[in-house]
């Protein structure tokens, strides 16, 4: 029974690692703008994303109910979200300039990620300026503000999707060699992470190489 389970596990791992590089042949790009190994940029992006989506939601409710309360709420979330966006942008730009090596293939994605978010922030800046001009009667800018919020959110989500690919596909900001880690990642887990990070990339290894490596991975994992 044990031999049968080991054989099945070997087949699964071999199938999973086909078309990907084995750990050691690919790497990650650990963040240099971090606190105790934790990248700062991802810590801040959740605030503007959530607050800008909340702004759009409050705008929609305000237009539907024609209630000034929701327009005021949208203005407040827009202000705080814009401040959070500026802070996230500063750390993101620093990460791009310091962490990502020149000539790295991920450089183009990083530039597109930054450009999309900069454009989104421009929409939110105009949105904020229009609402500030008519305060405290925020409903005067409700229709235009809702449109600007919607466009800004869509563009920012597109930029966020590219940022997610940079982390999960290219390993930007990922550190698998944290010497102070109290829960070290097992070799097989590291292999699985690298495989999942590069899934779908046009990278292939020979079946012979996979078969040769799989027993070693299983042996290292099972001890």
Question: How is this structure best described in words?
Answer:
About 16% of the residues have low confidence. α2 packs antiparallel against α3. The protein has 223 residues and is mostly helical. It contains seven helices and two strands; from the N terminus they run αββαααααα. The longest helix is centred in the middle third of the chain and has 31 residues. β1 and β2 form a beta hairpin. It has a two-stranded antiparallel sheet. The chain is elongated, with a radius of gyration of 23 Å.
Structural class: mainly alpha
Tell me the overall shape.
elongated
Query: Helix amount, in percent?
Result: 55-70%
Helix tally equals: 7
């Amino acid at each position: 029974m044990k031999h049968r389970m080991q054989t099945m596990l070997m087949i699964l791992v071999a199938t999973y690692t086909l078309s990907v590089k084995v750990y050691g042949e690919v790497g990650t790009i650990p963040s240099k703008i971090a606190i105790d190994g934790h990248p700062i940029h991802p810590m801040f992006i959740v605030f503007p994303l959530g607050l800008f989506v909340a702004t759009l939601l409050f705008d929609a409710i305000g237009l539907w109910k024609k209630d000034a309360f929701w327009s005021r709420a949208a203005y407040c979330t827009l202000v705080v979200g814009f401040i959070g966006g500026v802070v996230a942008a500063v750390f993101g730009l620093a990460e791009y300039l310091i962490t990502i090596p020149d000539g790295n293939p991920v450089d183009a994605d990083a530039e597109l990620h930054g450009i999309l978010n900069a454009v989104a922030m421009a929409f939110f800046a105009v949105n904020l300026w229009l609402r500030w001009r008519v305060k405290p009667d925020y409903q005067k800018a409700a229709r235009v503000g809702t449109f600007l919020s919607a466009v800004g959110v869509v563009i920012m989500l597109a930029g966020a999707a590219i940022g997610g690919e940079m982390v999960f596909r290219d390993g930007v900001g990922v550190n698998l060699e944290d010497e102070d880690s109290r829960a070290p990642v097992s070799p097989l887990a590291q292999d699985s992470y690298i495989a999942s990070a590069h899934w779908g990339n046009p990278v292939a290894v020979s079946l012979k190489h996979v078969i040769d490596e799989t027993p070693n991975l299983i042996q290292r994992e099972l001890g």
